[in-house]
Every structure is written in C-alpha cells, then in structure tokens.
Amino acid sequence: MSEIARTKMQMAQAPAGLEGPGFFLTSMEKAVGLARKNSIWPLPFATSCCGIEFMATMASHYDLGRFGSERLSFSPRQADLLMVMGTIAKKMGPVLRQVYEQMAEPRWVLSVGACASSGGIFDTYSVLQGIDRIIPVDVYVPGCPPRPEQIIDGLMRVQDLVGHESFRRRNSQEYKELMNKYGIE
Amino acid sequence: MAVLTEEKTQALHDQVLHLLKEKFTTGIVSSSCEYDFPVFIVEKEIIHDVLQYVKEEPSLNYHFLTTMCVLHYPENHGNEFAVMYQFHNMPANHRIRIKTFIPDQKLEIPTASDIFECANWMERQEYDFFGVNFIGHPNLIRILNMEDITFFPMRKEFPLEDQTRDDKNDTMFGR
Amino acid sequence: MNEFSSTQEEPKAEEKEYTTLNLGPTHPATHGIFQNVLKMDGEIIRDAVPTIGYIHRAFEKLAERRPYAQIRPLTDRLNYCSSPINNMGWDMTVEKLIRADIPKRVQYMRIVVMELSRISDHIICNSVVGVDTGALTGFTYIFQWREKIYEIFEDICGARLTTNIGRIGGFERQWPDNVWAKIDNFMKEFPRILKEFESLLMRNRIFMERTIGAGPIKPERALEFGFTGPNLRAAGLDYDVRVTNPYSSYEDFTFNIPIGKEGDVYDRFMVREHEMWESLSIIEQALKKIDRKDPIFHGDVPEFFLPPKEDVYNKMEALIYHFKIVMGEMDVPKGEVYHAVEGGNGELGFYLVSDGGRTPYRLHFRRPCFIYYQAYPELIKGSMLSDAILTMSSMNVIAGELDA
After folding, report:
1. Is the ipTM of this complex over 0.85?
2. Which residue among A74, A95, A124 sits closest to C58, beta carbon to beta carbon?
C-alpha cells in the first residue's frame, strides 16, 4: 500500500495493554469490546417517519455501514441492537416486547426519535408514552425526526457502551433487577 | 380558491334537490350550499335508498364515494350524531355531500358497504371512533384501535391524553 | 410472461388444507407496520385478512385540541414521504374557509415545493419496488438525490422530512438566494440521474418479468374500492385532482397525466416514473413564471399570518394580531369545508368543520392509503407470496397515512 493511502486509513484504536515482540497483552473484555463495537448488527424496527430518516442514514450519503452496521438483521435472534424508530402505539407494544425478548444477550436498545423516547407530540390515548415503559433502553436519540447525523451519534454512543461493557454485567444483580422491573426473564 | 363558483354550486344544488324531492317526497330535511358543496340533510329512514338512488340514477351518477365520517354534537339532544357522505361524479366533475342525523339512544344506521365497496373500512373506522352500529356490515370490528377496548375515543366526552402520565404540569397550559 | 400465470384456479375444497402464514407487523418487506394473515395453499395465496392500526396516533382527535396554526405539524406526519403536499393542503383548506386571496407568486412557489415533494415520494416508492425485486443499485444511486431535495426544503423551512412548510397565507419567510440556486442545480442535474435510474429497471428483463402481471386490477373495481392517484391511473383512469379540481393555480400549467393499462406492478412503476418527468416539467414552467426579485411571499391575511417583528414592536394592531395568532385565538368563520389535493398516493382530502372556536370542531382526513388498502386482499388472491410483497410495495402504502 502506498504511503499516501496508509496515512488516510483510520485504524481502530487499540485498547490499553502491554506490547512486546509478537504479543499484545490486554484484558479479554477490552479486546472483545473492540470487536463487538465495530460490528453491531442492528434490527431496524422502523415504524414511521423516523424510519425514512433511517433509510436516508443507511443510504450512500450518510452511510451507516461505515460503523460496522452494514448487515441489517431482521431476525431478532441474530441482531445485537434493537433500533426502535418511530411511534409505538399501544397496539404495537406487545409486538415490540416479543421482538425484544427474542433477542439473544448481549443486546442493546436504541430509541430513535421523540415518539419512541417519550411519546413525542402524540400524547394520546393510543400511543405508548415512551418505549422505556415496556423494555429497557440504552441510548435515546431525540429529534422529530432526528437528522441522520444524530442517529449516527446515537449509534456511536451505543458503541461506547458496547466497547466498555464488562462480561459479568448480564449476570450481575443490578441487571437482574432491571430485567425484573420490566418483567422480563 | 373555490372549485366551483357560487352560481354553479347553486345550480348543481337546485338540480340535485329537484331530483331528490321528486323521488323522496318527504324525508329531505334541509339543504344548503357550503362553500362549494351542495349539502343535503335527509332523514335516517331513507338514507340507504338515497345512497342507492344517487349512485344509480343516470342523471346523478354519483358513483364514487369520496369519504364518509361521523360527527358528534352532544348538545343536539335527539340528533347527537351526524353521518356525512361525500360523493363525486367523475365524468361530470360534480361533488355533493349528504348528511343524516341519528340519536344517541338508537345509534344505528344501515350500512353503505353493499352499495359502495370502499365504505367497508370507512364504516369500521367510524364504528371504532364513535360506536355507531352499521346494520348489515360484513365485519364490524375495530380497525385502528385495539380490539378489546370498551370506549369510543372520538366522542367529545372522551379525553385525548394518555391518563397514565404524571410528569406533565397542568397548571400552566391546561389539558 | 413466465409459465406460472399469476392467478391460479382454486382446486376442490375437500382436498385442501391451507397453511396460515402471518406476514406480521414487523417484517422487512412490508414498508410500514401492518399485518396480513395469509391463507396459503403452498405458494399461492387463497385469502388474506389485513390488520392495521399499529401506528394509530389519533390525529383526528388531536386536531380537535390544537389551534389552526398548530395542525400543520400533524399533517406532516400523514404521508411523511411527501410532507409538504400535506402541509400545503391544510393551509389551502383554511384559506378556503376564511376565503383568503393568495397572490399568484405564492401559489407558484407552492407548486414548486409540492412537485419537488412528489418527486421525492415517487423516488422512494420506485426505488423500493426495485429493492423488493432484489435490485438495490437503483436505491443507492437515486437516494443521493433525495438528499438534494431535502437540502432545498431545509433552506426554505429548516427541516428535512417533516417540514411544516408554509403558513396560512403563504410562506414563513422569503426564499433566500441559495434556494433558487439549489433548485436550478437540481433541475439541471436530476434528469440525467432519473434517466440512469430508468435504464437500470425500466427495460430490465428480470424486473419486467417479475412485475408484469403481478397484482392487476380492473378500472371498475379500482373505482369501487375508492382508488385515486397513481394506483388508479395505472388501472387506466385519468383522474387527477390537479386537473379536475385545480387548486393553487394548477390550471395555468400544461402537463400530461400518464395512465397504464393493466393496473399491475409494472404499470404503477411506470406511471410514477412518468409522473416524475411531468413534475420536472411543471417545476420548469413554474420557475419561468416566478419573478425571483418580487418581495411578496404571503397573502394579505393579517389575522392568520404573523406580522413582521418590527411592526409587532411598534404598532398596536400588529401586537394584538401576533398575540392572538400565537395563543391560538384566531377568529375563524363557522362552516364546513372540504379541500382535496393530489398527494403522492391520491386524493388527500381535508374535511374541516369549524364552529367559530379556536380549534376545529371536527377534522376528518380523507386518507388515500387507508381507502385503497382495502383492495389488497383482492389484488393478491391467487398470486404467489413474492408477488404479494411486490404488490404491497408498489401500492406505496405509508403507515402514517394508513392509520392516522
């Protein structure tokens, strides 16, 4: 590779560790975190207008594939990140809950848009006032609809969470209490 | 910008009223011209025949049901709910509106879905919102809300907001 | 046509046991959340029961609570792929109610915005029909140009998708110069891109064999089901609200109405494709008619259009108007009005009943998606599952407009 191309290439930041000839010593969590955060497979749960902004984010102008999310998984079993984009009505709540429960650990939830975060402008009898009433949410992206840059920023915050997650978190007491609060086993 | 001028609307109104009065001697309660639409208010008993007539009569030919909806006037005792149908005659480009009133105690009206197929879901939506029973409808169940709710949300007495929110401050802007 | 014809005869009842397949609310191919429970005989669909309402946001009830100036953000979210058309439709409804006169320049500017958003809506529908047949290239190429349209909207009103563009009486501010520059640039570059997109799909043998004959509908049945818009025009009837009931000076423009023959997926694709060309021609005509140096950008409706800030600080009546408009205490005459615009999917109608108060007494939306989606079971009976998916995406069912 030429010198010019090498300087333009951005390498992923290696985690802190001890380096020597032929070996690199770091903690497993950091290495796995680095791998996981650069290959998050999202499940786009696009319901309304935010879904169109997501389509724009996936398209070539604001490519989301640059962050490792090239392969969208529509099957919950194979997805890491549940991106809820758009208004969730009370009729849709059980469906969302079922999709979340089908996802395998470790799983994260990104709530995109005002409607998913808190009901948005629709404070009505039929709209669920925020998906955090039924599933635990990791990152909220406000906006109506949020710009593609904001959705990418939300994904980058999820990447921070993924990169620093401890292996024991999903079995910890705190996490179990969180799941019990929502009634999820 | 009005679609039809006032004279044309009045002329259309007169023509349709004349034909309706010829066919249904009693039962036309009133009629008027609202902006650019002739509006006819008819009795609930003849509404099904009126709809059939405006569709099949060659000089009327209102073959396209643009939309229908229900309105709730809780102060009009005896005539609380109004059902509005809007028609379009595409070849001649004429549009009219027909309304009828039904009381709260006997909230039912014959369905229009046997005459106009697109009225099927429109009536389901109005049943969902207001609770109007459309007699003869093939599948009168809720369409937009969840099937097991017991209230009719678009009625005036029903509140808009989700009642489980406790973080909004009512004193400043009211709800 | 391939050897599998699109409709197959139903065999005798006693030999058959059908599979029930749930094309559930969350499905990658249904662009939007609606459910279809299909009764399948192998790969052929025998019956379908659609369920909608998974994104019911109670627009009609919300509208009874909001003053007239605040309903435009709701209309945005009906057919969110072409929000400016909905916004303009609402503004024109209120202007009809108050019998306002809007200057020609404003009407032509409105037409430019509406046609741009129609192009953006048809781009989504056509590229997604391509994606559903497996052709992702067209989608990636042409979505770049939706960003250009978004940039134009952003410079006019500040938002990309749910634009809340325009005010009752006209536009909120004079269009800055870069808007005109961007529109000119778009008009120069986009025809070449649209031709490139067409060359990928229009005479592509695989695409044609997939889509010709899938989900056809006869014009009489289409009228029975209340079809309007490109779906009706693909079936063969040339009904366009811009021509029959012209609004916002559409009668000053010459344009063709493309119609199809069979009403199948290919015809719908072609009708939308040609409508994009017609929209480009309308925008070109409008650009010639608009005087860019003219300072007028709104009609004379001081009770509904916010006065300029210098007047608010210096004149009493401007202060009172400003206060009343912002607090939503506008004086609206009593009456009922219906106004229809040609949305991306057909006749989008607003039935507004006003009792003289600050909010509408009843606002009913005539939503084209809701009305023509009833015909979906009939369109797919007897066809295969993959054709059913194609039919749904070619009908351009937008969930926001379906459920409202």
Report:
1. yes
2. A124
